[in-house]
Structures are given as C-alpha cells and as structure tokens.
Fold:
Amino acid sequence: MASRYDRAITVFSPDGHLFQVEYAQEAVKKGSTAVGIRGTDIVVLGVEKKSVAKLQDERTVRKICALDDHVCMAFAGLTADARVVINRARVECQSHKLTVEDPVTVEYITRFIATLKQKYTQSNGRRPFGISALIVGFDDDGIPRLYQTDPSGTYHAWKANAIGRSAKTVREFLEKNYTEDAIANDNEAIKLAIRALLEVVQSGGKNIELAVIRRNQPLKMFSAKEIELQVTEIEKEKEEAEKKKSKKAT
Amino acid sequence: MRRSGAPRTGPDAGAAAMAATFFGEVVRAPCRAGTEDEEEEEEEGKRETAEDREVRRQLARKREVRLFRRQTKTSLEVSLLEKYPCSKFIIAIGNNAVAFLSSFVMNSGVWEEVGCANLWNEWCRTTDTTHLSPAEAFCVFYHLKSSPSVVLCQCSCYVAEDQQYQWLEKVFGSCARKNMQVTILTCRHVTDYKTSESTSSLHSPFLKALKTQNFKEPPCCSLLEQPNIVHDLPAAVLSYCQVWRIPAVLYLCYTDVMKLDLITVEAFKPILSSRSLKGLVKNIPQSTEILKKLMTTNEIQSNIYT
Structure:
C-alpha cells in the first residue's frame, strides 16, 4: 500500500500516514549521533564527528553551529538541508533583534525552525527537510533550554535527548543516567554528555566534538585536548567503579 | 468479455486492467482474469523477429554466471563444490556479512582462493575481475588450507533473480549432498521487518534465523517470525538446501544502516559460538582491531549526511 501513497508529500495514505515525512526521519538516522543535555547552569551539545577525508579541511565539516550569541544547535541528517535551515534561522535571529530590540528566546527560534519545516511538509513540489535539530541556549531569564525538532515540524522541550544514528541507545543511556546528581555541576553534565556518546561512538574520544553554553557566556567549543582529558577522567572513574564492584563481590 | 477487433476506448477498456492513479500515471493492476483477446492481440503485434532473438541471446550470454579461477583464468568444468567437496559451506552475502567473515573468520587461518564468480546485471557491473579493489562488488570462494572441507563464499554483489538458478547450479551442481552443512549470513534493512509490536521497541541491529528441516542444532538467535520473508540469493540458497535436504541455517541481521557499519557487523557475533564457526575463530580481540581498520579504509567519503 505504501508504494501508492509515498510519492507525493501532499497525499495522506488511507491509514493516515505521510510517508515522505516518515522517510525523511529515516534520512535523519543516517547522520551521526548528536546529544544534548540541559544542566542547571549549563547546556551541553556533543556530537560524533564524521571522519574527514585526508585532503578535506576539517573546519568545513561542522555539526554544531551558533545561531546567535546565546543559542546554538546541532543537527543530524542531510548536510545541505541543515545549511539552509541554519541560514534562515540566523537571519531570523538578527531580524528579530532589529525589530523588537531583544534577542530571540530559544523557544521562539525553535518554533520558527519547526514552522519552516512544517511548511515544507504541506507544499506541493517540495520535500521535507531531512534533518532533526537539537537547539540549546539560555533565555534572558537565565533558564537553560533544550529543544528538539524533527522533519515533521514538531518540537518539544527535553531535559536530555539524542538524534541521529543509534539515538535510541543513547536515549536509553540518558534515561538511566540523567539524575539530579549527574547534572549537579557543570563538569558532571559535560561528563554525562561524553559518556552518552562513548556508548555509540566508534573510536573513542577522538571522534567527539563538544560545545557548551554557560549562563551569560557565549558558546564555547571544546578543543580536542580538553575532550581527551575528560575521556581519561571518565575511564579512570569507570575503572575505580569496577574495582569497587569486584571488591564487594569478594 | 470483449470480442477481438472491437475498438478499445478509455482507460478502462476491456479486461486489460489498466488504472490511472491520482497523479495520472498509468499503472497495470494485476488481473487474474486472463482474457482471450489479450493473447490474440499480443500474437498480432509481437511476433519475434530474428533481431529480437539475437538480442535475447546476447542478453542471456551477458547475464551468464561464470565461475573461474582467477590465477589461471580458466573456468571451472564442473560445479565448485564438486571440485572442492566440503562439509561446511559458509556464505556471506552483503557487505556487512562479508566484513564479519573477513575480520573474524578469514584472519584465523590461511584461506586459499578456489574460485570467483563473474556476473553482470543492472546492479553489478563487474566485468574485469583481475583487478578488484576491496570496495568493488565481487563473489569469491575460499577454502581453508589446513582443512579443505571448509569452504567460504564472500558475495558482495547482487545476484539477480534470473541468475540465481545459474549461480546455484555452478556452485552446487551435482555435488555430494550428504555430510554438508550450510550457513548463510546476510543483512536486511529493519524497515522490511514486519511485527505487531511497536517499532520503537525494536533494538536494531538484531539477528533472526531461518533454517531448513534437516538442520537439527538450535540456532544462535530467535527464529524469523511470519509474515517476514527472506529475499534474493539467501532465499535461493536456503530453498535449494531445503529441497535437497541439506541442513542449512540463515542468519539475517536487521539493521538500520545498510552500508558498512561497525555495530551491524558486531551484531553477527553470537554466531561465533555456533558449531559451524566455533573451530574457525581464534583471536577475537585481534579480529575486532582488524574490523575497525576495515571500517576506516572502506569509509565512503560521502558528505550528504552529517
């Protein structure tokens, strides 16, 4: 039945599916994993870096992008679609600032992106955007926010979420490990993001990219060294936990 | 029923069962009525000319499955398993299954190449098999030097429906079918998996097994439930084994990443404990390292998805 109703975006199937939107969600799964965590005073975005070809300039392959000074997003899915969405969002952020003289709230820009995506699910001759995005930032009221959008144009606020390949595994890890203790301070939140990514990343810390926004501070990208330090700390903690376990057992 | 010679008008003329869809495309709907008129019409218009026959012959020749030895470039006179009788035949179909056998089985022993299949179809256009790069589609057969009754097949090319029978004949032929056990490994996209459970509870990749009646061992994972079916070459081999009463088991990995992927390949690991693979795998940590290297060398630098 699917083959008759999956050609055009503007056609519902008899059982109410918009197959093109659902197929767009499959395109998202082809992108590498991105994880977002909302802490008490920090928001963290971690992504699995794609390995870059030898002759390719690494700086041009970025999964985490700033939309404004206080908002940034990570995406998973079609690179070109992401570029278009990010450009539109950036223009909207500045346009909003010029018009109402206030920076956008995270929810506003998320709603803008989600509305844009929804428009493309209802237009003839166009296809949905094949990306999901994790949008993080701080509003003027100082409250940290994390939102996730998907190709259908829906958006929700999350405490922690993952998108892209193996997102399910990461989400389950987060459901088990996202506790009040785990986000007690900034460092713990960062460690939680890295631990979540290490569950699915193929070659350890070398393939992780991390960005944080702290209250009233601009976006900070972690260098490879800083990430390595965190990874070594996490591995030490793991070893100690295992030693404790084996001691208890004997 | 219309009589022949009556004019055909409109999209619903006759029982030719053509339908126009919402988009104006004309779709031939399956019609079991099988009208007499259609046959007559076909005869009038479609008499085969000599040219048609020649084209058909050339196409058949092009689509022939050829088995030969790469070193000597000579084709095999008998079927592969007649020339190299085996007690264990392990077939990997698809790039993830092939990577699994390459890293875990082929590295624990010395394997000698005994044959290579050359075939052409719309999806697999390898004509020159002398200079194959690892990324190209191919179908190669090996046997273990220390125990020549173990034969392995690495098949990463697509074998079309009309070529499957030829492939089976050229590989199995009239070989001795007693004391032979066949293991097939392959992958399928998880969107093909039909289940009444919610798909959000599916943890892909996961393994499912399908076996022939004569396969008495317990498989390493749960059996494939109905209404799921197996397709293409794995189905052809399994059907062949069922007909000829050869014990055979197919391990099917449902994954959401069809290209070469570490997690998908590792999903085949439970098979290492099965009887057919047990004696063949020696160094698992080293195999994991080799697998990681294989991933990085074969990574297609596609920038479409980030």
Observations:
- The CA atoms of residues 116 and 140 of chain B lie 4 Å apart.
- Chain B is about 30% helix and 20% strand.
- The first strand of chain B starts at residue 18 and ends at 20.
